[in-house]
Design goal:
A two-stranded antiparallel ribbon has the order 1-2. By secondary structure, the chain is mostly helical. It is built from ten helices and two strands, in the order ββαααααααααα. Helix 2 (59-66) crosses helix 3 (70-77), helix 5 packs antiparallel against helix 10 (204-219) and helix 6 packs across helix 7. The chain is elongated, with a radius of gyration of 24 Å. A hairpin with a 2-residue loop joins strand 1 and strand 2. It has two domains: 21-78, Homeodomain-like (Arc Repressor Mutant, subunit A); 92-219, Tetracycline Repressor, domain 2 (Orthogonal Bundle), CATH 1.10.357.
Length: 233
């Protein structure tokens, strides 16, 4: 990094002042860093879907696929867990998971539940094969499991919020059924449930509507998703 250096007289003494690098230099460096990071994530995704599968997904293999040094991967992500977190963030961005916040802005809790379900099902559908591969690897690798379990726990916490609202607004479920209701909703909104329900003849939105109708029927409350309109809710 080059700096402009100047000196000036203050109380008879010379001091040196280091000037900040020009903004365009910082911008170009940041752009290069971002490009390297994106290339590594893309390479990691390619390896996830490669024929080598689980055994082929290593930091060395990712670096080779991305055309960078092994230490560059560590510099960018810190560890294998850090890389997996970045892949998960990239998947969430592609799946527009920022829209999930809309679920918690709904005035009616049944609308909140409907939007929560459909946003997760759309997310699961956005990169279905990659997500399926990630979850299969989690059964054999503690790093994969750690990252996915943390993400799944966030989903569970969102369902706790919605279940408490159901209790407040509809009196259901009963207090003693709170934990098991959260567990059931957690299972019904999982990737595994989506993967079984969303088929060649049933879209993600239609599968989400099916789950929502089932939950409403089980709780004895009225509410449903219009699955014919993609942006409904």
């Amino acid at each position: 990094m080059s700096y402009c250096v100047r000196s000036e007289e203050i109380t008879g003494k010379k001091i040196r002042k280091e000037m900040s690098p020009r903004p365009y230099q910082l911008g170009r460096r940041q752009a290069a860093t971002d490009q390297t990071r994106a290339s590594i994530i893309a390479a990691a995704r390619e390896l996830l879907m490669s024929g080598d599968g689980f055994s082929g997904f290593t930091i060395d293999a990712v670096a080779k696929q991305a055309g960078v040094a092994r230490m560059t991967v560590y510099y960018q992500f810190g560890s294998k867990v850090g890389l997996l977190e970045a892949i998960s963030d990239d998947l969430a961005a592609h799946g527009q998971m920022e829209r999930l916040a809309n679920a918690f802005r709904q005035a009616n809790v049944l609308d909140a539940l409907a939007e929560f379900i459909v946003q997760f099902f759309r997310f699961w559908a956005s990169d279905r094969l990659v997500l399926r591969r990630l979850r299969s690897f989690a059964a054999r690798d503690t790093d994969f499991a750690q990252v996915l379990q943390a993400r799944d726990e966030r989903r569970r916490e969102g369902l706790r919020v919605i279940t408490r609202r159901l209790m407040a607004e509809y009196g259901r479920p009963a207090q003693e059924q709170y934990d098991e209701t959260v567990d059931i909703l957690y299972t019904l909104t999982s990737f595994e449930s989506f993967d079984m329900l969303a088929t060649a003849t049933r879209t993600a939105e239609e599968a989400a509507a099916l789950v929502h109708r089932f939950v409403c029927a089980a709780l004895g409350v009225a509410g449903s998703i219009d699955s014919t309109t993609p942006d409904t809710i």
